[in-house]
Design goal:
The structure is a homodimer.
Chain A (H helix, E strand, L loop, with lengths): L20 H20 L6 H8 L3 H7 L3 H25 L6 H16 L3 H11 L14 H16 L7 H24 L6 H20 L6 H15 L3
Helix pairs in contact in A: 1-2, 2-3, 4-5, 4-7, 5-7, 5-9, 7-8, 8-10
Chain lengths: 239, 239
């Protein structure tokens, strides 16, 4: 992900300069919306109620966000930016080069960053799973957050010491994102304290994933790797 | 799946005896509900409206189904039974023993059987994706339909000529069901005519799956197979 230029940063991301007033208003509206979505449910919260609760005019709220869906997109973008900020040091600095360790760190950081939104996610999940919704991760509106998430996995990979089949390397960040989505769905359904079951699942699957990737260099698996690559670009990531 | 005894068969399944009157009433209520769900949406359809439209008393409707959720469970069960009836000959009789061919046949049969419900599935999907809902495939209420679906994959496997690692064989039907769920989600989102993209995806992934399974016997992959088996029983199928 590129560094967000000052003035467009979604809210207070650690390590970015203090945002100007318009950004503070935008962040306030977003935070108010998130709170109301959680308290009243997404379906029952109106733009009018969000504006009132945030102490801004309805026109002002619409100036920043075209509607409720865009507020959720704002939430996706913020979550992606917070995640990126949390793992930046590990991804770019001299962090561990072991792929399993890198993947585990990044996934655990996501669970930490997303922790305040767990309840919201559970009640919200069904909207994102609606194929007709712009809130689906595959909708055009979600592309920026999707790209940000995938680019984190590009950096997990590029800073690691793993050697993978060249053809696989092309689609690996997308495969890793799909793994992340699987974990996210598990996390949404997870009612264990502090979602510790999801944490254990990540601790188990990150090394397994790295192990499977190391196998991809074997000639025996070459045709399978090629077929997976083609399937992904033909059926899933056609953008 | 066991043969449904007469009198408990969910509606008119080909190859089963003509159901008694109570079963006809049950099927009528179920069909009416499905139609109303499709026409008015699941959320807006009441038990009262279903009873009225089916020409039965509200009390009678509740005699057969405890509520709307149970009607959807009835739909799941019916879909599973129709699917089973459609593939019975292939699974038990002298059908193709090639695993890829068997899997392709079973998956294509599912798409054919589910065709009339595609629109309903699209509008309904978000309810099934709600973790709190009894309509989730992992809810206790869904276990009969889940068991029926998994047992179809047991028969896909047991009649095939494939030799797989013994440890993998234990969890393979569950893995194949997860593959089916992936295809179902793709199908829900698929807007191509007659969901032909999903059909092509099945035609590509069924042979790929069989190919991956054949590899599972290699000693090299043994630890990975073992770990996948343990993860499935620890994190997903704890019943």
């Amino acid at each position: 992900m590129e560094e967000a230029p000052p003035g467009t940063a979604p809210g207070a991301i650690p390590g970015t300069p203090r945002p100007p007033k318009s950004e503070q208003t935008r962040a306030l509206i977003l935070e108010t919306a998130m709170r109301l979505f959680e308290e009243r449910g997404y379906d029952k919260t109106t733009m009018r109620a969000i504006a009132k609760e945030a102490g801004v005019s309805v026109g002002n709220a619409y100036y920043y966000f075209d509607g409720k869906e865009h507020l959720v997109q704002g939430f996706y973008d913020r979550l992606a930016a917070e995640h990126e900020a949390a793992v930046r040091g590990i991804l770019d600095g001299g962090g561990d080069r072991d792929l399993a360790a890198r993947l585990l760190t990044v996934m655990t950081a996501w669970i930490d960053v997303a922790r305040p939104y767990h309840q919201f996610a559970a009640q919200f999940f069904k909207n994102a799973a609606d194929p007709a919704s712009p809130l689906s991760p595959f909708s055009p509106e979600s592309h920026p957050a999707l790209d940000a998430a995938i680019s984190i996995h590009e950096r997990v990979l590029s800073g690691s010491d793993i050697k993978v089949d060249a053809e696989l390397a092309e689609v690996l960040p997308e495969l890793m994102w799909m793994y992340q989505m699987g974990i996210v769905v598990y996390w949404v359904f997870d009612h264990s304290p502090d979602t510790e079951r999801t944490r254990r699942l990540v601790a188990r699957t990150a090394p397994l994933g790295a192990r499977i990737l190391r196998l991809s260099r074997y000639r025996l698996l070459r045709p399978i790797v090629r077929e997976i690559r083609e399937l992904l670009s033909e059926f899933l990531f056609r953008r």
